[in-house]
């Protein structure tokens, strides 16, 4: 399993890439492998400010639908529109072309974000 060192992770299996005051968010390689083939990604919260821990969208796989939880507080600025026609990008490239949203960070980062090592321990893939 691949958990890039420069990213932060959550216990809900999202990853966060911080670049100044903008964060890119997606789900981890572990999460997409557990879900199976992803057939739909829905984010209807663009333009809204969402608090950390709140649901910002859903991922639909062949057998299940899972909520996406916001790892940080901020305004959702952009949804990865490539996922509308190609949701399988989340399976194929969870950290690159399979990103889900870009968020303008508001407030401090939560203290419970995990490093790559901590996340690997959490999912038992170290």
Feature tags:
126 residues, 6-stranded antiparallel sheet, 3-stranded antiparallel sheet, 4 helices, 18% helix, globular
The SS-based structural class is alpha+beta
Mean pLDDT across residues: 95
Secondary-structure arrangement, i.e. CATH architecture: Beta Barrel
Any idea of the CATH topology?
OB fold (Dihydrolipoamide Acetyltransferase, E2P)
Largest sheet descriptor: 6 strands, antiparallel
Q: Domains counted in the coordinates: how many?
A: 1
- The succession of helices and strands, N to C, reads EEEHEEEEEHHEH
What's the alpha carbon Rg, rounded to whole Å? 13 Å
Residue windows where pLDDT falls under 50 for at least 5 positions? none
Head-to-tail CA distance between termini: 9 Å
Your description of this structure?
This protein has helices spanning about 30-35, 80-85, 90, 115-125; strands spanning about 10, 15-20, 20-25, 40, 50, 55-60, 65-70, 75-80, 100-105. With about 130 residues, it is an alpha+beta fold. It has one domain (about 10-110): RNA polymerase II/Efflux pump adaptor protein, barrel-sandwich hybrid domain (OB fold (Dihydrolipoamide Acetyltransferase, E2P), Beta Barrel). A six-stranded antiparallel β-sheet has the order 1-2-3-9-8-5. β2 (about 15-20) and β3 (about 20-25) form a beta hairpin. It is globular and about 35 Å long. The mean pLDDT is about 95.
Question: Which helices and strands occur, and which strands form pairs?
Answer:
Elements: E1 8-9, E2 14-19, E3 22-27, H1 29-35, E4 38-42, E5 49-50, E6 55-61, E7 65-69, E8 74-79, H2 82-85, H3 89-92, E9 101-105, H4 116-123
Antiparallel strand pairs: 1-2, 2-3, 3-9, 4-6, 5-8, 6-7, 8-9
């Amino acid at each position: 399993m691949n958990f890039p060192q420069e990213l932060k992770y959550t216990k809900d299996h999202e990853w966060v890439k911080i670049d100044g005051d903008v964060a890119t968010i997606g789900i981890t390689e572990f999460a997409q492998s557990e879900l199976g083939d992803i057939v739909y990604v829905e984010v209807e919260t663009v333009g809204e400010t969402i608090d950390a821990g709140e649901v910002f969208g859903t991922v639909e796989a062949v057998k299940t639908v899972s909520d996406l939880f916001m790892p940080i507080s901020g305004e959702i600025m952009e949804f990865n529109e490539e996922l509308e026609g190609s949701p399988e990008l989340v399976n194929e490239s969870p950290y690159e072309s399979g990103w889900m949203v870009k968020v303008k960070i508001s407030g401090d980062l939560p203290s419970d974000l995990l490093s790559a090592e901590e996340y690997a321990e959490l999912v038992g893939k170290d």
